[in-house]
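#struct-pred

JT: dropping the chains for the assembly here, can someone run the whole complex?
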Amino acid sequence: MSRTVNSFVKIEGRMRWEAIWILSKRELLAFARNKTRIISSIAQALLFLFIFSGGFFSLDIVIDGQSINPTAFVATGIIAMAILFSGVFGGLGIIRDRMFGFMRELLVAPISRRTLMTGKTLGVALQSLVQCLIMLVISISMGFFGYDLNLIWRTLLLIPIALLFSMGVVGIGLTISTRLTDFQSFGLIQTFLIMPMFWLSGALFAFNNVPTFMQVLMMINPISYGVDIFRFVILGVSFFPFWLDLLVLVLFGAVLIVIGAKSFSKMEIS
Amino acid sequence: MTENIIEVQNLTKIYDEGDVLAVDNINLTLKKGEIFALLGPNGAGKTTTISMLATLLKPTEGTALVNSHNIEEDPDMVRKSIGVVFQEPSLDGDMKAWENLELHAILYGMSKKERRQKIKEVLKLVDLENKAEMYAKNYSGGMKRRLEIARGLIHNPQVLFLDEPTLGLDPQTRRKIWEKIKELNEGLNMTILITTHYMEEADVLADRICIMDHGKIIALDTSENLKHKLSGDIIEIALEEIKDFSTIQSLISELKKITGIKDVKFGAKSGGGMEDFDFKMPQGMKGVNPQMIQQKMQEIMTDPKKFVRAIKKFPMAKNFFSRAPLHARERIANLFKDNTELLEELPKNMKETILKIHSGEYKEEQKMEQPILTVSCENGSEQLPEIIQKTTTFDSIKIKSVEMHNPTLEDVFLFYTGREIREESSNRTENVKKHIQMRQLRR
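RK: done, full complex below.
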């Protein structure tokens, strides 16, 4: 078995920036050209924004002694959710590449697998960022966060944070996709991985409003820290201290990128 | 610089999963500027060989030099020396045609200026310069193939690998691709390594043909020389249905007595390969990609569990089985050799047929229905009257048609392997297992 796993010839060597760029550009182009995907992702988010912010309107959300507007609270959660969804599904795009044979073309090119993976990761991360910014702009123009000039620098600050958050999320997608060969297990991943991570991230309800066992689960879930840091950047309040959010996200990103890279370089061409 | 562009030494590949000996200790050399064909049935090890030469797979034993670079030590340089067109399509349908080429050129480290010029050049070469702005998914099968060939040429490779370049294309498109391949070879003096299971393709294109089966090289020569070895003529006599097998046997022994007759073989009329299945798309399913179906079919045909699932899901498939040519049914039956318990899940008549095939009864039945005698002789026109005369002395045997031709590559293959190219041998897995055990002992 061990011989089979490593039975391809590896290309060692440097990362090639031009190759990375064209690979990320491919992801962005695919997103920009797929009108249904753009529309459905925005529509879904808007649906969530209106329904949940409406449904939670009467709730009192208090963080650090400050009372938070429920609409603003849910909106930040939904924006963070965009990173989770588009990141994981973007990473799963590798399955598509493998099924339609394009992966072969990439694997036979004189570039290292690290270059390939970096290009893919960067592309998906940028694509998630674009989606997240679209939603942020919609939310701001709807007045969910009030009208405040501070929102300009908050938006700018969100860019590097969102990219950092996507790293770990894309890593999840890459790791899973290198092990799957078809779309059959897609529903499984959605039900048992993405949905629990989403519901237990505190995107929709406040950390201090839930029973203790859920609090524990939420503290284990790395996505919670992503959602939390988004709130810190946009609303200025958070459940966890900023440094803890940042630390968890850096660790989460680093660990999953390493795992993703490992499984990527072990990936067999069927 | 050597004359040889590819040198293969003792190349061997064993897939550990399923203990498959895919390529068995092969040696060959490709000369600069020639078209070299690897010819063999599905599963002969052609694609595995090409994958190893393209540095996608690591050889279990042995090695190869491509353009003087070792495939294991210097894969980067090997990849730059070759252009590969895979058996399955490998274009990104969501990108425009020229974008596919651009991406390829960048991955191969070409500068912007070089890129622009070369993309124009190769598009022109395959007559797609007017279609460069189209999305690759909207291309027809033949156009996709041409675009892939163009892509393989962008980075000025020394050798072009074409893995089953005309698989699934209609005859007209196939001929067009052949013309392009010839053009490339003659115009650019490009060395081309091609794998195929179409006899005709190898015959038309290749300077030299290497016949592979079960991972081994069976014969390697020019098409002319291969056919020359089988001097004389081939006479095929199709017979009406026969009731009694023993009369055929006595006829064969009678025929063999005629002077100038080299061999007489008896078999059922063979059908086409898996690809030529009479598979008609149900109406109203126009959006379905036939290549996807083909891929799915191939998947189903390798895994008995998937096969059972498919039969359960699509009742249509049952008719499909009963209509399938004998060799395809045999192949399906072989799937269940090691998994007889799965047979219980199949419909009753299918299960019975498969059990019959397993016990060997079925083949004889088929032979009796559509019998055909293949006689190889030194001079057909001299021996034919005598053959016909001998045959007509048997009252129970009636001749349907007689056909005489010069030996074709198909006959060459029959001569070397004792079977037709598309037939799948039943005891293959056992042979392979023995072979692998022997190898492990030696180590």
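JT: nice. The two ends of chain A are 15 Å apart (CA to CA). The interface with chain B takes residues 1, 3-4, 6-11, 13, 16, 18-19, 22-23, 26, 29-30, 33-34, 97, 100-111, 269 of chain A (CB under 8 Å).
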